[in-house]
Design goal:
Blueprint (H helix, E strand, L loop, with lengths): L6 H14 L23 E4 L21 E20 L4 E9 L5 E7 L6 E20 L5 E7 L11 E7 L5 H4 L4 H8 L7 E10 L5 E2 L11 H15 L9 E7 L5 H25 L4 E4 L7 H18 L8 E6 L8 H6 L2 E4 L14 H15 L6 E6 L1 E4 L7 E2 L11 E9 L2 E8 L3 H13 L4 E5 L13 H12 L3
Parallel strand pairs: 7-8, 7-19, 8-10, 10-11, 11-12, 12-13, 13-14, 14-19
Antiparallel strand pairs: 1-2, 2-5, 2-6, 3-4, 3-5, 8-9, 15-16, 15-18, 17-18
Helix pairs in contact: 5-6, 9-10
């Protein structure tokens, strides 16, 4: 998928790099974000351990059971809520769910997910009940829950529009082929873009070592030449005309660097930097694009980061010469090893934070804590304002072993809650394998979007759209993000 190079090396050095910045990160939590009561303050608590003493809070609950442990909060009158924040001591919980007590005295599940760790937001449709039951259904060891808070969170007032950014290739969902479908099929597909606000064309354009623009980037390129790019871009714009809600969509393109190793990129920029900047600018003008995205993965040393600094500033200077349009510059980066100058960071319009292929200790490639908590804290420590950041969400799955295999959400029978699709068959170097793959389910997409909204993150970014189910599917990830935007932002 998106990490073309040095994935294994990246994983190996991740811990060392993160440690080097440990002193400058600031964790971004939700605890003080809601100007509404914590409903746990008025609940009476029961627990499954047999301890008869009623707890006033969930604090430091340590059930003896590794699995099938539960705790119940009760109120004398019905309470309505849509948000739960949980904190765990350590990282023992692997699966949990929540249930409410219905009018017939039966427990009904309303939320299910994996892992809690340091801080976990659970966001969902409003529930009204006199009791909620929290169940730990799987854990590595007997867990310890530090705290739990329950809110009926109101929609948040935002100063700026919330971005939903999608990377889009001209192959898997080829615009010219989509336009050959029925009017109903085109309208269904166009519903993606009633949620998505920014589209980044990916895998189509690059510069070569001499500074020329290429329209065939290799590595399974989505197109073969400039004529293909023009044709598919025109067809894509036709698709947008089929939307019921025709909001403005900013279309940019990723201009890829010329090789799968950093030194060739750095050398091309040193030797042909002005030519590259001018050619990219001319391409933006020719195709009436809204800006560019650069996905250099990654400068290998401080000298190459300095080259990237200079290129970013020169490119932004050039884009700013067009006073008729708001041309934007974005960069795709992960939450480790960033070595840009802080003045350069401030000039970047959007950081497309690649919150995926980020394997935690359990092999989950895009878990809540590793991407939302640790990742955003790292970026904040590097000097990015949260309003610059688009929180990356994968539409594909990875195995726990991190095999060189990416599974598309679109291809499997799935449900709203489960992040794991079991027993996926695939082949690596002629060897057939069967493994579980970790995805971000619609519920996880909803949670991450709600978290981004509430912490001042400027938007979310998805990679990539063709991996998603179609908008008329109840488990479409884009529609889950759109639901969070509608539910959690005051309109």
């Amino acid at each position: 998928m998106k990490k073309f190079v040095a994935l294994i090396t990246s994983v190996l050095i991740l811990v060392a790099i993160a440690a080097s910045f440990a002193g400058c990160v600031r964790y971004i939590f939700l605890d003080d974000s809601y100007d509404v009561p914590d409903l746990m303050e008025t609940a009476s608590i029961e627990e499954s351990s047999g301890n008869a003493e009623k707890l006033s809070k969930w604090g430091d609950w340590k059930p003896e059971e590794k699995t099938s442990a539960y705790m119940i909060a009760r109120w004398q009158t019905p309470q309505t809520f849509n948000t739960v924040v949980i904190e765990e001591n350590g990282s023992k919980v692997m699966r949990f769910n929540m249930q409410y007590l219905d009018e017939n005295g039966q427990w009904q599940e309303f939320y299910r997910s994996d892992k809690i760790e340091k801080h976990r937001l659970c966001a969902f449709d409003e529930v009204t009940t006199t009791a909620v039951k929290f169940n730990i259904t799987d854990a590595k060891k007997a867990p310890s829950i530090k705290n739990m808070e329950i809110y009926n969170a109101p929609p948040k007032e935002l100063e700026n529009d919330f971005r939903v950014v999608a990377y889009y290739r001209f192959d898997g969902d080829k615009p010219s082929e989509i336009m050959k479908g029925s009017e109903e099929e085109i309208k269904t597909y166009a519903k993606y873009f009633e949620v998505i606000t920014h589209v980044i064309i990916f895998g189509c354009t690059a510069w070569d070592t001499e500074g020329n623009i290429l329209y065939d980037v290799g590595n399974g390129s989505a197109i073969e030449n400039e004529e293909d790019f023009a044709k598919e871009l025109a067809a894509f714009r036709q698709i947008l005309d089929y939307r019921e809600n025709k909001t403005d969509i900013k279309i940019t393109t990723t201009v890829h660097n010329p090789a799968d190793y950093a030194s060739a990129t750095a050398d091309s920029l040193v030797n042909h930097g002005e030519k590259i900047v001018n050619n990219i600018f001319d391409m933006v003008q020719k195709f009436d694009l809204g800006g560019i995205d650069i996905d250099w993965e990654y400068p290998a040393n401080k000298k190459e980061w300095n080259v990237y600094d200079d290129f970013i500033n020169d490119m932004i200077d050039k884009l700013e010469t067009d006073k008729t349009k708001d041309l934007t510059f974005s960069s795709a980066l992960s939450h480790w090893g960033i070595n840009l100058d802080k003045k350069t960071i401030k000039r970047i319009d959007y950081l497309n934070y690649m919150g995926y292929d980020a394997f935690d200790d359990d092999g989950y490639q895009s878990a809540f804590k590793s991407t939302c908590i640790d990742g955003l804290a790292y970026l904040n420590g590097m000097g990015f304002d949260m309003s610059q950041v688009n929180l990356g969400i994968p539409y594909y799955g990875r195995t726990y072993e991190g095999d060189w295999f990416w599974a598309n959400w679109r291809d499997y029978e799935v449900n709203w809650f489960d992040n794991v699709v079991p027993d996926i068959e695939y082949e690596i170097d002629g060897v057939k394998k069967v493994n579980d793959c970790y995805f971000n389910s619609p519920q996880m997409c909803y949670d991450k979007t709600a978290y981004a909204i509430n912490t001042g993150v400027g938007g979310v970014m998805v990679f990539r759209l063709a991996c998603d189910k179609l908008p008329d599917d109840p488990n479409c990830l884009t529609m889950a993000i759109g639901k969070a935007v509608n539910d959690r932002i005051a309109h």
